Fold this sequence. Notes:
By secondary structure, this protein is α+β, with helices and mostly antiparallel strands. The chain is globular. It has helices at 11-20, 61-68, 109-112, and strands at residues 24-30, 33-39, 42-46, 49-53, 71-85, 90-103. A hairpin with a 2-residue loop joins strand 1 and strand 2 (33-39). The mean pLDDT is 90. Helix content is 19%, strand content 46%. The strands form two sheets. A four-stranded antiparallel beta sheet has the order 2-1-5-6. A two-stranded antiparallel ribbon has the order 3-4.
Amino acid sequence: MRRKDREIKDFDKILQIMRQCDSCVLALNDDGFPYMVPLNFGMDIEDGQLYLYFHCAMQGKKLDLIRKDNRATFEMDCDHNFILYDERMSCTMGYSSVVGHGIIEFVEEEKSMKH
């Protein structure tokens, strides 16, 4: 991250941002190129560990890629607002975002129904 002064490291603040997001972009490895797909998600915290849950069909490219390599990166963003600086004749975009990575595991239907 270029602007370390804006980086959020507090776990509770990160969770607060994630709770405001309504989709998650999942990036998977696809023969040298990332394969990115936006997904709905659920979250759970057990013993200080964050778990993300994604619902999907039982077949398809996403699942084929996960079976080949279950490492993934994710991104979520929210709070988008356009910021115009009239005096400088410039603009920027304000937002909150979270980027992370982890290992994808398949969850049996019985366990997923508990969450």
